[in-house]
Amino acid sequence: MLPLDELQQKVLLQLAREALTEAVMTLRLASMAAPSPALAEPCGAFVTLHEGKMLRGCIGHIEAIAPLYQTVRECARAAALHDPRFDPVTPQELPKLHIEISVLSPFFEISPEQVEVGKHGLMISRGVFRGLLLPQVPVHLNWDREQFLSETCRKAGLESEAWRYDAKIQAFTAQVFAEPTKREHSTPHAA
After folding, report:
1. How far is CA 3 from CA 51, 65, 132, 174, in A?
2. Of residues 170, 71, 75, the one with CA closest to residue 114
C-alpha cells in the first residue's frame, strides 16, 4: 500500500478535516463509502492535531484491521474528543488546528543497534506494558537513538533502561504528511 501518492494524501487529509469538524460539532461521525480502492486497504495510522507548535491530540491504531480511510476518520475524531491528555476540542479551536497523518508500515522486531532516528518508529513492550513513539518524535525533540529507546520505555511505563535487557523492541516506518501549516480561509465560489 505505501507509499501513498499526493492525491491519496490530500484525500485522507480532507477526510480527516471533515471527520474532525463533524465530530466536534455533532459528537458523531457518519459512515461513508470508500473514496478509492487503495484507501480501502487495511492499514494502521495515527492522526496528530497541533495548535501552533503545541500538540493538541494524537490517537492511532497500530493494527491494520480497518480500511485506511476509516482508520484516519476514526482517529481524527478520537484525537479531538478522546485523547486523555487534553480536554475535548471546541468548535472555536477548529480553524487553529493543523492535521498530520502518519500511515504505518507493519511492525518488525529490531535490535537497539539497528534503530535509526528519523526512519523508525518504536514500540517497546514487556508484559501488559506497551509504549509507542512515531518516527518524527525523536527528530522534533533532537533525541539520539539511546534517548529515543529510553523515552519509548518511559512511555510504556517501564524503567528507562528496559530496552537494554528484557523489553521487546519493535520498529515500523511511517509515511507522514500534513496540511499546509497556514490554512487558507477562503469563501467558496458560487458555481
Report:
1. 27, 19, 22, 9
2. 170
Question: Could you tell me the three cell numbers for 149?
Answer: 529507546
CATH number, domain 108-172: 3.30.1490.150
Decide: 16 and 89 in contact? Cβ < 8 Å. Answer: no
Residues 6+ apart with CB under 8 A from 30: 22
The x, y and z cell numbers of residue 55, run together, are: 500538540
Task: List the pLDDT tens digit at each of the 191 positions of the chain.
Answer: 569 999 999 999 999 999 999 999 998 888 888 888 989 999 999 999 999 989 999 999 998 999 999 999 999 999 999 999 999 999 999 999 999 999 999 999 999 999 999 999 999 999 999 999 999 999 999 999 999 999 999 999 999 999 999 999 999 999 999 998 764 444 333 33
CATH fourth-level superfamily of 6-104 = Hypothetical protein ph0010; domain 1 (3.30.700.20)
